[in-house]
Amino acid sequence: MKFTITREALLKPLQLVAGVVERRQTLPVLSNVLLEVQGEKLSLTGTDLEVEMIGRAPLLEAGVDGAVTVPAKKLMDICKSLPDQSTIEISQDEHRVQLQAGRSKFVLSSLPANEFPNVEDIEANASFTLPQAKLRRVIDNTAFAMAQQDVRYYLNGLLLEVTASELRAVATDGHRLATCGVATELSVEGKTQVIVPRKAVLELAKLMTSQEDSVELSLSNNHVRAQVGEYTFTSKLVDGKFPDYERVIPRNGNRTLLADRQALRQVFARTAILSNEKYRGVRLLLDDNNLQVVANNPEQEQAEESIGVEFQGEALEIGFNVSYLQDVLSVLNGDDMKMTLGDANSSAIMEEVEGGDSLYVVMPMRL
User: Domains of the chain, with CATH numbers?
Assistant: First the structure.
């Protein structure tokens, strides 16, 4: 195998592919990236057995066909360190791979391509194409609420719910819930639900860089596959039943709060400085178009700040994890936000004033 490529053409797909590769692997070949040359095209593949990313890049000229695996991180670090506009020549020599760029020369260890695992072909139950911007929006507006290493493994991911008229994403860690739905016209029948694992969601979002281009999604019983330009992304799905998110959304809130979103963000950021580092709790005291935010910590320190709001309903004192409130305010659009509350023990709904396409539920804390 032998090929010549520009640094820029190699670096972008290499960075995306290396993102799915785990450095600490029980199988040495899994920390490598698979390089395959066919004519004037180079394919790069990385996998951790759960997630697979394939990127393709044009060569400067037809190379010598072949395939080999090399350490992903080392190859990426070398490419990053080379000057812009560099031309890179890579060739295989038995158990070594040589990389030459200008006066720089590197020799990397390699493993045979036949040791590299393949993700099996998937039999899609549903396939459809939609704008990248729509998929990116539902991910960006919900992914922050996914659980991390929860024993309820089905929470460590994002629920994608597909119907002919809507693509909806839902995430929850048991303390908060985020949901966002965008209108679509898809050629699918009925309702399809899949749980995409956390790592796959984060890597998939990196591919959604275009406002105009589309992404082709294929869903099977066990896998999700996305085709984005020169990239093919495949991930196993989480095998489990996602909670009925509709039942979690409170419908009996009798108090509403309207506030300037950015001003409220800044109030939370300041008061959070003196909140308990572990529990991150703040108290909200609502009364007569005034919101007072209070934070305490075990060192007997305290932060207080008031902000003018539009508040309808009886006075209320309620506690929340301030990080959860900040996360929601950072993804909501618009100048103002709306919060619907019940009593001190009921979850709150946060959304845009006009409703929008996103809705957030945050459970209260006892302080």
Answer: 2-115 (3.10.150.10), 126-246 (3.10.150.10), 250-362 (3.10.150.10)
